[in-house]
Design goal:
8 helices, about 240 residues, alpha/beta
């Protein structure tokens, strides 16, 4: 099974005692737009009651100061058509962030279903991005603009590609919600392999990471995730040299 979901078990009408059991095909049940609405609303209540959404919003607010969040770029959220999907709770958190900051959402997920796309298209200030790259241009030269990039439990190479694309922009105006890269034990690759990600490596050396609090209803959904950003005290020269 490529995606999390129910298994469809197909039974034969006639059972032969002499025939060995065969592997049965599995597939994922996709939720309807109504299912998605119910699931996201339920997740939103849990994200709110747990205190996670308030913590994230308040922390970002303390980091941006007088600046404003213009865009929230979501990379690889996963499915969100059922309450047991991690992506449902992640999307609920992101929607809360967008409402709080009046920000647009750029949503990029190659495995999105038709119903999930329809749901997103009905939301205000949400754009589905269908490109296979992560080369999104933000106006980072405007010192009053901040962009939040969400890559929860993301692939290291994808984050490295994104950082390589924006590296020579104003990194101080980017806030990541990503893996907590302070502990190599949490990374699948060895330290030697991880060193091949030049821009991600450089970012980890100069960035500040703040671990997200445990999400009590489903601890694994945001486990080992953090807010990451580059302090204003880090000069562009230091960033260029380290890359």
């Amino acid at each position: 099974m490529n995606d999390d979901g129910f298994k469809v078990v197909r039974y034969r009408k006639k059972y032969s005692r002499n025939k060995k059991c065969e592997a049965k095909p599995t597939e994922r049940f996709e939720g309807s737009v109504e299912d998605i609405q119910i699931a996201v609303e339920k997740a939103a209540m849990q994200v709110e009651s747990s205190g996670l959404s308030s913590w994230v919003v308040n922390k970002i607010r303390s980091l941006i100061g007088d600046r404003r969040v213009k865009s929230v770029y979501v990379i690889g959220n996963g499915h969100f058509d059922a309450p047991w999907e991690p992506g449902t709770h992640q999307l609920a958190l992101i929607l809360r962030m967008c409402r709080e900051f009046g920000a647009e959402m750029i949503f990029q997920e190659p495995c999105i279903s038709k119903a999930e796309r329809e749901y997103l298209n009905k939301q205000e200030k949400v754009v589905c991005r269908d490109s296979t790259d992560v080369q999104v241009r933000f106006d980072l030269n405007d010192l009053n603009i901040v962009c939040v990039v969400v890559l929860i439990h993301g692939v290291h190479s994808i984050l490295d590609d994104f950082l390589s694309f924006i590296w020579h922009s104003n990194l101080h105006n980017i806030i990541l919600i990503c893996n907590d890269y302070r502990d190599f034990d949490l990374i699948v690759q060895t330290a030697a392999e991880f060193s091949n990600y030049n821009f991600l490596n450089a970012f980890c050396k100069c960035a500040t990471f703040i671990a997200l609090p445990e999400y009590a209803p489903h601890p694994s959904f945001f486990s080992y995730s953090s807010l990451a950003y580059v302090e204003d005290s880090i000069s562009p020269q230091e960033l260029i040299v380290s890359a």
